[in-house]
């Protein structure tokens, strides 16, 4: 693989498996920072939007309380204002693309222009009805839900480097053996194997935080080493 020009980066829906994507983002910064710094657009769906925001706004999310024993939406309402910089909307406008699903008709919506820090509409992209509560968040008077329902792996017309904790037709993902059938999730093609089924379960009901960080960090490093070798670095 040869990257001849800057590529946008897309982080898929991932749930609690977002720690894998955080590991990939950290490997980018450590070993190929030019990929992140020159990316014209960084997209994210669902929890992937948190990773995208962390990359664009140059922040680190503390994931200590990120577990299913709490109300996820309430935790996000607390942690986002705390960690997003005051000028997050300036850093994000035109570069961060947050995908959401409009509640009334299920239409895929992409927000990339923000007027204030509060407008960085990450809550809308992460709301799973029932799992996060019963009252959806709104953005400028319109109710939205998880962006992964309408576009699991968002892309832009230009070249896009895709990142997902689920193996499939994705640029950076865990390396699994081939399987006999594929699983299409909101436009993204994933491998229909046992490993992905386990990952999907862990995305909703994860293992302990310590084990999750260790395994996903190691998995991300192995994946990135293979990717950088393809780049000839």
UniProtKB/TrEMBL annotation:
Descriptive protein name: PNPLA domain-containing protein
Source organism (scientific name): Anabas testudineus (Climbing perch)
Active site (record annotation): 46 (nucleophile), 146 (proton acceptor)
Residue ranges of the motif GXSXG: 44-48
GO CC field: cytoplasm; lipid droplet; membrane
InterPro entries hit by this protein: Acyl_Trfase/lysoPLipase, PLPL, PNPLA_dom
This protein's UniProt keywords: Hydrolase, Lipid degradation, Lipid metabolism
Segments forming domain PNPLA: 9-159
Motif (DGA/G): 146-148
GO molecular function: triacylglycerol lipase activity
Superkingdom field: Eukaryota
GO biological process, any: triglyceride catabolic process
